[in-house]
Amino acid sequence: MASRNPARPLSPHLQVYKWGPHMLVSILHRATGSGMATVGSLLLVWWLAAIASGDQAYATFVDVFTTDAGGLNILGYVIGIGLTWSLLQHMMTGIRHLVMDTGAGFELKRNRMGARATILASTLLTVAFWLYMGMK
Amino acid sequence: MGSGTPVGRVRGLGSAKHGTQHWWQQRLTAGANIFLMAWLMVAVARMPAYDYASVHLWLQSSWAAIPMALLILSVFYHFRLGLQVVIEDYMHGESRVVTMILLNLFTFTLGGIALFAILKVAFSGAPA
């Protein structure tokens, strides 16, 4: 690999651009995807392995995220709501990407609207999901 | 793409001979994941209870075990492709190679455990 001279000038990077919703959902797509791929997949596999291992292993899993009374503890809520919102945000920006892959939605106004819509949709769906869970 | 045979250009094969494979498979699994993850959210929300017996009984059914196994395959392949892009963006030189190997280890180890767990529960003897 060619040797790098740290003193050489760099081209302007992200900091010169004014932040907009398209940049926010772009980095959110990557952040939520990376988070789910690591934390989310580990927890999903732990859950599945615990179901396969027996009721004691399952109790250990449940115990981490619940209080003695049976409800979710703080970690349970943070992880639960965090993963729900991450999944839905990644799903909404993913659908936006699929639409943009067809060449649609690149006009400034429509692009900005689409980016905002992903956040609105993921947040509303997360609230709906947890309201449903709370009303059970 | 200036080089290559006409048929090679039509097939979209670049110098690495993989063409648009990575990009396209990421989209295919994305489409599958929309349905599979929507199923998982609805299935989890509609479970009657979350104690061991209820959850075990749920996963024993073919109606849960099959989509769950398909979900593991599609989602894990999707995040394997996605994290590869993240690694390619931020890691360089030797550390990129090491991280990429770790990514494969992570994906296949977790995926193997998940599929085995699903099959173990699904084949554990109660009526389907």
Automatic annotation (TrEMBL), chain B:
Q: How does it sit in the membrane?
A: Multi-pass membrane protein
Q: Which SUPFAM superfamilies does the annotation name?
A: Fumarate reductase respiratory complex transmembrane subunits (SSF81343)
Q: Biological process (GO) annotations?
A: tricarboxylic acid cycle
Q: Which Gene3D superfamilies does UniProt cross-reference here?
A: Fumarate reductase/succinate dehydrogenase, transmembrane subunit
Q: What's the domain of life for this entry? A: Bacteria
> What cellular component GO annotations does this protein have?
membrane
* Protein name as it appears in the record: Succinate dehydrogenase hydrophobic membrane anchor subunit
